[in-house]
Amino acid sequence: MRNRSRRVVVASVVVGILLLWANRLGLLNPLKAVVGFVTTPIGRTFAGAGTGVGEFFGAVGQIRTLSSDNADLERQVASLQRQISDDTELRRENESLKRQLNFGTTPVDKLLPARVASYQPDNLRQFITIDRGTRDGIREGLAVVSEGYLVGKIIEVLPTSSRVFLVTDPAFRVNAVDQVTRASGTVHGKIGSGLVMDKIAQSDKIAQGEQIITSGLGGDLPRGLLIGQVETVDNRDNAVFQSAQVSSILRFSRLETLFVVLGI
Amino acid sequence: MRYIWIGIATIISYFLEVSFLGAARLLGVVPSILLVLLVVVSAALDPAELVALAALMGMLLDLSSGADFGLQTVFYVAASLGILVTRRVGTDSERWFSSILLVSGMVLGHGVVVAVAVATISGGSSLSLGLLASQAVSEVLLCIAYLIIIRPLVAFLRRDSSSLSIQRRSMRRAGG
Description:
By secondary structure, chain A is of the alpha+beta class. Chain A has 3 helices and 12 strands, in the order H-H-H-E-E-E-E-E-E-E-E-E-E-E-E. Chain A has helices at 2-24, 29-61, 66-101, and strands spanning 111-119, 127-130, 143-146, 149-157, 162-166, 174-178, 184-189, 195-201, 211-214, 226-234, 241-247, 257-261.
C-alpha cells in the first residue's frame, strides 16, 4: 500500500510538470475547449442564481445605509439634470462637427453581448469567464465593457468561452488620461479598494470627480473607454508622482451582462 | 458506487465554487469548498485515491482560472499529502473537531499561497494584511458551514465503502 502511494505521488508530480509544460505550449487548449464547452452553459445558470442570492444578501446588509444613500442619490439626480440640459446643446454641436469631419461613433453591432459563466476560484485574482468565444468573433486583447465602463480585456479565447482579465486585478495595467485636464497615468487594480491611477506627473492637475478614460497608448485597448471617476488625489511633496483613487460605478463581483468591443 | 457519489459531489462543489458562490460572494469571498470536500471524503479514500482526487480537483480549478496555471493542482496535491500526514499522526477527519481544524488549516494555507502568488506578481503593494485577515476569517466561516452541510455525505460513503469491503472479503473467502 505504501509503495502504491509513493507511486501515485511521484506520478502526480510528473503529470503536474508535464501539464505545466503542455499548457505553456498551448497543448492543453483542446482540453480547455472541451471543459469550457461542457461547463459554460451550466456555469452561466449557476452564476445567474448566485447573483440573485448575492443581491438579496447585499440588499439586507445595506438597509442601514439606505436613507443616507437615498439623500446622496437625490442630490446627484438634481446635479445630473442640470448637466443633461447643458449636454443637449453640446451633443447637437458635437454631431454637427462630426458630420463635418466625417467621424463615426461606435456602431451598436460592434458590441457583442456576453454573460458571465464563471469566476476566479480565489479571492485575490480577478478573472471571469464569459460565454462567447472564437465562434463569435472574439480574439485576444479585445476590450470588455459594461454600462459604458471598462471591465477588462480578453486574455484567452476558446471556441465557446473566453477569459476576461478584469481591470481590478493588481497585475492589470492600462494607460489612462484625465478627460478634463489630460493628465496621464497608469490605472491598475488594488485588492479591496478598487482602482488606483498612479505615475501621474507632479506638474499635471487632477481633481476629484473628473472622469478617467483609456488613452489608447501602449496597449491594445482602444482610446476613450470610461474607467471611472477620481475619488481622492494623493499628492505628496516628496513623491515623484501623484496617485489617485479611481472609482468605477461597476460592481465587479456582480457582473452579469457584458459587452465585448469588437471594434471602434 | 462510492466513486460515483464522490464524482457527483466534486462536480456540484466545483460549479458551486466557480459559478454560484463566485457570483454570490457571501461575506465578500469565494470559499474553497472543493477543499472542504477533499477533507470530508478523505476518510473514505485510500492514500492513492485521495491524491488522485486532489489532483483532479486542482486541475478542474486550474482550467477555470485565468492565471497561475498549475497553482491549484500543486496546492490540492500538497493538501492531500497534508491530510495523509495528519492521518498518520492520529488525526481522524471523521471527528468534528479534527475536520474543522483541518479545513481551517487548509483554507488558510490556500489563502497564503494565493497571496504569495499575487505579491510576486504585483510586488506586494496591492495587498493589505487587514483585508487578507478579514477575507481569511470569512472564508473559514463559510467553509465550516459547508462542512456542516456535506458531512452526512461522508457517513454515507463510509457505510457504502464498508459494505463494499465486506463484499470483497466474502468474495475472497468464497474464492479461497
